[in-house]
Amino acid sequence: MPASKSRVFSVGQVNAYLRNLFSSDYLLRNLCVRGEVSNLKYHSSGHIYFTLKDASGTLSCIMFAGSVSRGLSFRMHEGDEVLVTGSITVWEKGGTYQLYAARIERAGAGELNERYEALKKKLEEMGLFSEVYKQPIPRYIRRLGVVTAPTGAAIRDIINIATRRNPFVQIILYPALVQGDGAKESICRGIRALDRLGEIHPDEKVDVILIGRGGGSLEDLWAFNEEEVAQAVFDCRTPIISAVGHETDTVITDYVADLRAPTPSAGAELAVFDLARYLQDVSGYETRLTAKMKEKILRARGNLSLCQNRLLALSPKSRVERMRGNLERLSEKLSADMQNALLYAKQELLVEDRLRQAMERTLLARQHELELLAGRLEGVSPLKRLSGGYAFVENEQGQALKSIRDIAPGEHIQVHVKDGTVHALAERVEESPAADGAQQ
After folding, report:
1. What DSSP line would sit under 86-148, residue for residue?
2. Secondary structure (3-state) at 262
3. Beta partners for residue 259, in sequence order
4. I want to staple 145 with a disulfide (CB 3.0 to 4.6 A). Which of 191, 209, 276, 433 is the partner?
């Protein structure tokens, strides 16, 4: 018989019901599943898709990109044994269920992590991580000591990087066990042997010790998390670089060592200087040093020349020469002044002679002119006329009588003649007929 319509559900409803059913189960909301990783895919979006399997079955899993940075500290590979913590729910669109991972750890890592954190805390409290005890890594080394496995990618990378950067660097390898039983004892012996090498053979003393190995699981790297190894690193008098695993791996020796390198290759780069760069730097230093030396020599020569000039200027010989020069200049100036004074005196005498001659000529000319004027004056002199019978008449006031109109009858007059004066009285005044004619 056909089913009742009241019992017919859509696919989405069924999937949604199952999703709610899974979500309401406390066990499925937070569980930890152990299994082997297969069908692993790192998506470009950052999500990780994989399957957990064991002998009894498989389980689809997904870890979203937001959970990867918080819950995954290593890169998973096919075949890894892991513990996945998360929740199981239904993907409604596909009608499948899967484990949504929130945290992924290597199987067995929980106990090791507890031991790791406990030892880390203990050594930190003891001061083994303190920067006070860190030794500087020499910038230029000639001999590099390496404690690692004699075979494998780590030693090959170290040799390749070191010899490429400096083909003259000497690498001394202490072949050590880096995993499994006896690894921690082997690493400790290697550190101590390389550290004491300079005491036994001074010419073979290493400048830096590099300890490390390639990547692996926490169990694989555990030898570098042992307290004995950490103490050997701390006690080592030679600077130590710890280069263990991949960049994301961190071991106890990374904290104790003088320098931590993310990988063995990076450790070789940090330990061995680049010879080509070194030679280039030396050439640059030589060029700058030569330029500075030349500049300093030129400056010293200039200062020497200046000091010589000053010394020469202050020497007695220079002072005598200057005084002699001044004396010569003064003598020449005095001679020139005397010559100028004599010439000036001669010129003054010449001027005086010329002035005297000019005065004599002027006196002669004035004398001659005076004689001419005297002759003329004598020609018109009243005295000369008086000596010829003429007289000069004045009234009582001493005014010359030039006309009959200047005298009235009865006035006294004075008649001056050659040898005296006649005082007379004008009895009458007569006008000359010639005067009338002249007036008419």
Report:
1. EEEEEETTTTEEEEEEEEEEETTHHHHHHHHHHHHHHHHHHTTT-GGGPPPPPSS-SEEEEEE
2. coil
3. 241
4. 209
Dist CA 201 CA 193 (whole Å): 11
The angle that helices 183-195 and 227-235 make with each other, rounded to 10 degrees, is 0
DSSP SS3 for 40: strand
Residues 130 and 244 occupy one common structural domain: yes
Q: Which tens digits make up the pLDDT trace of 22-58?
A: 777 767 888 889 888 899 999 999 999 999 998 888 9
Same-domain status, 124 and 268: yes
pTM: 0.51
Indicate whether 247 and 299 sit together in one domain. Answer: no
**What is d(CA 134, CA 250) in angstroms, rounded to the nearest whole number?**
18
Beta bridge mates, 72: 104
8 A C-beta contact, residue 178 and residue 187? yes
Strands (E), 161-305: 170-175, 208-213, 240-244, 259-261
d(CA 233, CA 211): 9
